[in-house]
Structures are given as structure tokens and as C-alpha cells.
Amino acid sequence: MRIIMSDKITECVKRLCIEANCVLPADIRKRIDEARAAEKWDVAKGILDNIIINYGIAEKGMQPICQDTGMACVFLEIGQDLHIEGSIEDAVNEGVRQGYGDGFLRKSVVKDPLDRVNTKDNTPAMIYYDIVPGDKLKITVAPKGFGSENMSQIKMLKPSDGLEGVKAFVQKVVEEAGPNPCPPIVVGVGIGGTFDKAALLAKKALMRSTDMRNSNPFYANLEKELLEKINASGIGPQGFGGLTTALAVNIETMPTHIAGLPVAVNINCHVTRHMTEVL
Amino acid sequence: MEKRITAPLTKDVVKTLKAGDSCLISGVIYTARDAAHKRLVELAEAGKPLPIDVENSVIYYVGPTPAKPGQAIGSAGPTTSYRMDAYSPTLIKLGETGMIGKGKRSPEVIAAMKECGAVYFGAIGGCGALLSSCIKKAEIVCYEDLGAEAVRRLEVEDLPVVVVIDAEGNNLYEIGRKEYLETL
């Protein structure tokens, strides 16, 4: 059995927190560049130009792309043949504490949702555990801003609502969000499972590279169709009108109950940040 | 063509601004988010003096990242404005003339803007690194315990914003989208 020390996890999480907040993933840059080339509305072109300038400044100076450096969502895929020496949860939170401190990132977490006192170190992280075959540890850090998180919704549709119901719900969520989540957005959709699993699927959909479509051709086509419909809405960059309301729609699905059709829509802004390392 | 305006912002200047105008703001503005707004409005409702001069003030809805050594401020883009909707009418009635944020506002806020003469600007959400370069000086005025949400006094130069809702209630989120769709 392979053994790793938990301090290796702390170092990795720290590094990923800082880099994910300052360096925009290559696929999102590609989507923004493509959108800029396709846009015909002058206001929208100007906004996309500024977005491109902004992520350039951020990477060059290792400065946060956005001031909302998010809650640290940390996805762990733990090989079942791996033994971790020490507390994995403590190691992740220590990595977040060090990353948000040393990286000059904003501390945006309150200890209690109603009492609302800031924890001052951005902990605790939101940690997601998956046990997978092998002896490796895959760590993904995705800082999640709440301008877009707040615009996310979940709905327990009826099976009779079917495909049309799913499409209508996704479009309704984007329409209601309008300018609030800093469009252009990335739309993560989770269909199936239970109430909670649908939401998790939607969040995991946002981790998938926008270079990749769903491996099932039916859902790959649905992703394309929904993207076209969303971009026909005219909301545009920042809600000032234009072609580019969304950069991508990513759908993930899983089996569900005979009585149910859960659909969750998790919205990300154009600062769709995530970075992965394998230990 | 961009309009150059200075803050504090007088009601005479507010009247000249129309939804869709691109503006560059220079001068002194204040930062406040939900938590600070709540405290300011509680003071106002209790008839107590406020820690900032609200008359002709421009308030920027931002919680910046910490400044690195040599920086005046860290990344500093706008946060979503609707969370301030419960508090803005009170501040507008006390003389606030400008708000900078992003996203929709409530009918109550727009009514107060029309009644008293105030304007709502949008800054580009998600461009915090770029907007930071327009902020030359930042100091905490009050509520330091709120961390990123403390009220700061900012000296800004040519901060780029767009008039989203003007003092007549014209709304760029409606106008811009409609005009774009009409070109198709």
C-alpha cells in the first residue's frame, strides 16, 4: 500500500488555491476569444476586450482575476489502495488557510449562516470525497464565487415534464439570473439522482473542460442546443445586450427514481476557475 | 465617447447622465457591501450620525482582496447589487447620489433614485485586477472587524463605469438587450 503524508496535501492545496485564483484555464480563454471574434454588438466587444485584458493582468502579476476568490471547493479522488498519514480534512483546511493568507486572497467565509462572523482564513473548505481504484490522490481546487452561486437553482421535475421541461427550466434559470452572475457564464446542469446528487452533478459539470462535450451524443447535442438557445436570449456580456450570454453548457447525468426527474443548474461566471494536481 | 465625472457627485451632474453613457469617475468614493449597509442604515434609523458623509456620495459595492506589498488595494471589481436593495433607499434619501455595482435593482431602489436624483453605475464584474489599477489610495474608515467588507475611502482616477439606471429610471439592461435583438 502506498503511503503519503498529509503535509503533501496541504502544500498542494495551498499552491492550487493561489494558482486557480490568478490563472484562468486555457479552455475558458479559448471560449472567450471565440466569443469576442463572433460578437457583432460594440458594447459586448468592449466588455470582452476588458475581460481578456483583465485575465492577462492577473496572470502576469499573480493577482486574483476577481476579488471574489470564492469558497474553496476541494474535490478529492482518493485511490482505495492509498493510505494517508494524518487527517485529510485538517490537511486540506490548512492548505486553504495558507493559500488564502500567503496568496493575498479574500477571506469570504462566515462561520454561521445567520450569525455571520467571518472565519478570517477562508476555512472551512467545501470538501468532496470520491473513492476510486488505484493508489493516487487527485486534488482539484475550484474557488467558487457567490455572485454566480446565488443564481443557481434546483427543481424536482415530474417524469412527464421530460426533455422539454428540462430545457425550459435551464433557460428559466439563466433568464432569471440575467446580468447578476457576470455573464458570459458557464452553465453546469445535473440531471437525475436524488435532490442532493443532482446539485453535486451540476457542480461537477462545471469542473469539466469546455473543450469536451458529454460522451453520450444525445446529451452532447442537448448541450449545444441549450447553448444556442441561451445565446439567442440577447442578455449578452454583463447583461448589456449581445450574443455571448454563455460560454458553454455542461451536462452530467445519473440514474434516478421512477417517480422523479431532478434538475439542478449551477451557474459560474466567466471566471470559471479550477486547477488539478495528482499526488 | 466617455464622460469624465468627479466624485462626490452633485445632483446637477446626475441629471446629465443617461442610461448607456460610459463614464470615467475620478475623486473620492466609499466602499460598502451588505454588512456595512446594514450598520449604516441601523444608525440612520436610530437618528445617529453616520461615519461617512453621505451627501453627494458615490458608494462602490466591493470587497477587495488584500493589497500586496506596493499596491494601494488588491483586486476590486463590483459585487451583485440586489443584496443592497433593502438599504439603498434610506441612503439615497440621505443624499447618496451614486452607486456602483452590477446586476438588477429593485423597483423600490429605482423609485428612490427618481425621487431624489441618483444614478446606478455598472462596473465590469469579474475584472477586479483591471479595476484595481484605477484605485490610487484606499483607507479603512470604519467597521474594520468586517475584513473585506469594511468601509473604505477610495481615491480613484478614471474608474470606468457605465450608467445602467439613470435618474429618470431608464434601464440599460432593458434598453441594451432590446436594441441588440432588433439588429438581428
Describe the 3D structure.
With 279 residues, chain A is an alpha/beta fold. Chain A is 40% helix and 25% strand. Chain A is built from 8 helices and 10 strands. Chain A has a 4-stranded mixed beta sheet with strand order 4-2-5-10. Chain A has a 4-stranded mixed beta sheet with strand order 6-9-7-8. The model of chain A has no long low-confidence stretch (mean pLDDT 97). In chain B, helix 3 (88-93) links the parallel strand 3 (58-60) and strand 4 (98-101). Chain B is an alpha/beta fold. Chain B has a 5-stranded mixed β-barrel with strand order 2-3-4-5-7. Chain B has 6 helices and 7 strands. The two termini of chain B are 25 Å apart. Chain A binds chain B through residues 40-41, 43-44, 47, 50-51, 53-55, 57-58, 61, 63-69, 104-108, 116, 118, 120, 147, 150, 178-182, 234-236, 238-242, 269-271, and chain B through 35, 62-68, 74-77, 79-80, 82, 102-104, 122, 124-130, 132-133, 146-149, 160, 162, 172-173, 176-181, 183-184.
The total count of helices of chain B amounts to: 6
Order of helices and strands of chain A: EHHHEEHEEHEHEHHEEE
- Counting structural domains of chain A, the number is 2
Radius of gyration of chain A equals 19 Å
Specify the helix fraction band of chain B.
Answer: 25-40%
What summary fits the major beta sheet of chain A?
A: 4 strands, mixed
Alpha-beta classification of chain A: alpha/beta
**Kindly, what is the distance between the CA atoms of the first and last residues of chain A, rounded to a whole number of angstroms?**
14 Å
* Low-confidence region ranges of chain B: none
Biggest interface, chains and residue tallies? A-B, 46 and 44 residues
Which structural class should the secondary elements of chain B be placed in?
alpha/beta
Oligomeric state of shown chains: heterodimer
The biggest sheet of chain B amounts to: 5 strands, mixed, barrel
User: What count of helical segments of chain A does DSSP give?
Assistant: 8
Helix proportion of chain A: 25-40%
Instruction: Give the overall average pLDDT of chain A.
Output: 97
Tally the structural domains of chain B.
Answer: 1
Global outline of chain B? globular
